[in-house]
Amino acid sequence: MPHEYWQPRDGSYYKPDIEKKFPKAVLQDALDTQKFIVGQKQSIYQQLIKGGFINAELMITSVIQDILQMADAPSNWRLQSKQRELIYYGDYMLTYAYTRFLEGSQTGKKARIMESACRAILKQFNEDIDFASKTGQEWFDAYLASIKTYQAKEGLDFVKANMPKAYLLLMLE
Question: Structural domain boundaries of the chain?
Answer without folding.
Answer: 55-128+135-173
